[in-house]
Amino acid sequence: MTKIFAAVLSVGLALFLLSPSFTDRDWLLGQDKKPTPADGHNIHVVAPHLVNGKVMGPFHHYCKSVSDTVLECLIYESTDPKALLVQVEYFIAKSVSRANVPLKVWNKFYHDHAVEIASGRVQVLDMPEDQAKKIADVAAKTDGIIFDLWQPHGAKAPNGEVGHPQAVGHKSLGEKEYKSS
User: Fold this and answer.
1) φ and ψ at residue 53, rounded to 5 degrees
2) What digits encode the pLDDT tens for the residues 20-57?
3) Is 30 left (phi over 0), alpha (psi -120 to 50) or beta?
4) For residue range 99-156, what is the model confidence (pLDDT) as tens digits?
5) How far is residue 83's CA from residue 141's CA, in Å, rounded to a whole number?
6) Phi then psi for 91, rounded to 5 degrees?
7) Are 46 and 57 in contact (CB under 8 A)?
8) What is residue 6's three-state secondary structure?
């Protein structure tokens, strides 16, 4: 019964989309669509992460600027168009994160992108080297926080837990160092 229903639904949907009277077909197929918050994630960065104590990746970050103080990245395990979104990372200007996040919380969940970039583990892809350097220079002025959405990695379905991977090489800061940077 389920196979018959699926076949009827598939044929019906195909006829609907191919029908000359279907005027919203272009919208449904993604043409002439209105901008969405998902648009613009076109800065491609790869970097490994420390997930549950294990170095994993490299993870493919697709990032965009959402304000003068925040960049966001959608993170996938591969570049396959059907890859699952497994993590989200926010790049927060240090002037904002360090003024609003207690040191204990920062040391547990955040990392300094200047340290991560200096390690050589981060690569900005799909653009000329001079543009990639400019993006890395901006990112170095931010702190990152990662939300790991697909727990455990490789499972058929996520278990509902959200983890907080770290940058490989993350260094906890002391109070003086935190405030001075």
Assistant:
1) 80, 0
2) 444 454 555 556 789 999 999 999 999 999 998 899 99
3) left
4) 999 999 999 999 999 999 999 999 999 999 999 999 999 999 999 999 999 999 889 9
5) 30
6) -105, 110
7) yes
8) helix
Residue at token pair 């080297």: 129
Number of residues written out for the chain: 181
What does DSSP assign to residue 39? T
With H, G, I as helix, E, B as strand and everything else as coil, classify residue 104.
helix
Angle at CA of residue 150, ends 142 and 67, nearest 5° = 30
Give the bridge partners for 148, in sequence order. 87, 163
Tokens of 161: 């837990």
Distance CA 143, CA 90 (A): 8
Cβ contact 111:162 at 8 Å: no
Whole-prediction pTM: 0.80
CA distance 109 to 95: 17
